[in-house]
Each structure stands twice: as structure tokens, then as C-alpha cells.
Amino acid sequence: MLKKLSFTIVLFFILNLTFFTSAFAQENNPLLTAEINPINEEIEATESAEATESTSLASPSAEVQEKIKEKQDKDITETGGQQKSKLAKHLDDNPPGPLSWNNFLQHAIRETIAQGIPANVLVLVLLFPLVASFIASSRHIIGLRGFGIYIPAVLSVALVSTGVVAGLIMFAAIVVTALIAKRILSRFRLPYLPRTALTLWGVSLGILGLFIVAPILNITSLMIVNIFPILILVLLGQNFLDAQVSTKQSDALALTIETLVLAFISSILLQWEFLQKLALLEPELLLISTAILNFVVGRFTGLRLAEWLRFRPIIEE
């Protein structure tokens, strides 16, 4: 038993001595070091290249980043841009008087902003009824129809977010893709719901293609579009297709153009700095004026401007 134990200790000592000798030789042998170092350098270079490629894919170019920052600073729908700080600073520069019946909403808005709600979001909430009132007045007095009130009003917010040019380009791509998909699917006699789902499938491919082409054509405004404006534009495209089913194609096109015109003018109202400041400093006045405007428009019973122009020869006779 003692011999076996002694043999084991001696064998263990020999193995350890061999291991340390080999390690010492590799460390001090220039040939071995020269063979190992290129391998390590190659591994490190590969990892560095992969990290650089990953970083370049994860972050856009400096030009695109600058344009994204510029858009966020000007976009009232962005909660992280300069518009938020600018509106909040305007509130700080114009403190309200003591709490009373005609400025209680101002105090409530200031307290809400102090608790963390973005000022630009509150501005949009306060201006949205005014935009809806403008669209209703345009329809009731001028005769612009569009797709109701809700679609142009929501579309105006989408155009503020995307920009007019990018929004129109995207809407054109959505409509063209939807028309192509509709023409192809009409041959298969599918029920309404599966046909609509396949139409949206085609629209999604069209939007994907637009995003693929945008960097090639250097259309930066399309490269920084959020998802929600895209969904609103898809909804408008679906309304255009539904209008084609119930009316003539020329009437559907006219409704779509009128909707875009109303949304464009409404987006200008939303970006008007005077109205933004009025919404924060005089929210009571803005809301009461909007309500009075709707009552006044509702009392109008004459001919609409479009009807007057249409029947003008008969009226003059």
C-alpha cells in the first residue's frame, strides 16, 4: 500500500513538472510566440471587424442622425424634441395670476406638466377639437366632403409627424400598391375579409419596398417615419378602396384629394406657433371659442359655397 502511494506521488510530481516546463518553454520560445501571436491578432481583428460592422448596422450615418435630430426638434408630436422644452419654457416665462374661475385650467395644465406630462402632447389634445371644428366648418359651409371628420383630423397629425412630402409619397405608394393588389385579387373571388387581409399584405410589401428604396435614393424624410403615421395612411388608403366600391373612381379620387387638402391645412394649424402658445396660456378661451364656433356654424342654413358655384347660373336667372 505504501509503495502504491509513493508511486502515485512521484507520478503526480513528474506530470506537474512536465506541464510547467512546457509552459515555460512556450513562453520563452520566440518561434512558438511568433506562431501564437498572429492567431491571437487574427481573432482580435475578426472580433473588432464584427463589432464595427454591428455598430455600423445598429447606428445610422452622421448625416441621417443630424436630420433625425432636426426633425425631432421641429416635430410637435415628438415628446423628446425641442418643442417640448420650448413650450414648457414659454409657460415659465408667462406665469398665471392667482387662481380664479377663468384660469383654473391654466393652473391644472402647469401642474400636469410639472408632474411629467409633455407640454406638446397637451397642446395637441387642446388643438385637436379646433382642427375638427375647422373640418366640420369646411364641409358645412364650403362643401368639402372628404372622408368625414375623423380621418382628415387624424391624418393632419400624421402629416405633422411625417412631413407633407414624405406623407404624400408614402400615401401614393400605399394607394398604388393597394390598387394593384385589388386588381390581382379580384380574379380569385375571395370573401371580403380574406381579400382585405391580402390587400394589407400587399400594402405592407409596398411600404417595405419604399423603405428599401429610400436609402438608395437618399430620401431621408422616409427613413425616419414612425409606425403610427404609416398605419393612419394605410387606413386612408383602405377608405379610398372602399369608396371605389360604393362610388365611381373619379368620385373616390375627389374624396381622397379633398381629405388630403383638409388634412394639409389642419397640419398647418397644428404647427402654428401662435395657436400652440394660445392653447397653453389661454386654454379656457380656446375651448370656449371652439364650442361657440361650432354653434355658429350649426346655425348656418344657406347654400354651401360649392353649391352656390354649381348653381350660380340658375340663381342669377
Secondary structure layout plus pairing:
Layout lengths: L1 H27 L1 H29 L3 H13 L7 H12 L10 H11 L4 H24 L7 H13 L1 H22 L6 H26 L2 H4 L3 H20 L2 H23 L1 H9 L1 H16 L6 H6 L1 H5 L1
Helix pairs in contact: 6-12, 6-13, 6-14, 7-8, 7-11, 7-12, 8-9, 8-11, 11-12, 13-14
Q: Outline of this structure?
A:
This protein has 317 residues and is mostly helical. It is 82% helix and 0% strand.
What can you see in these coordinates?
This protein has 16 helices and no strands. It is mostly helical.
Quickly list its features.
317 residues; mainly alpha; disordered N terminus
- Helix percentage range: over 70%
Helix and strand pattern: HHHHHHHHHHHHHHHH
Q: Please count the beta strands (DSSP E, at least 2 residues each).
A: 0
Q: Structural class per helix/strand content? A: mainly alpha
Distance from first to last alpha carbon: 133 Å
Mean model confidence by pLDDT:
74
Shape descriptor: flat
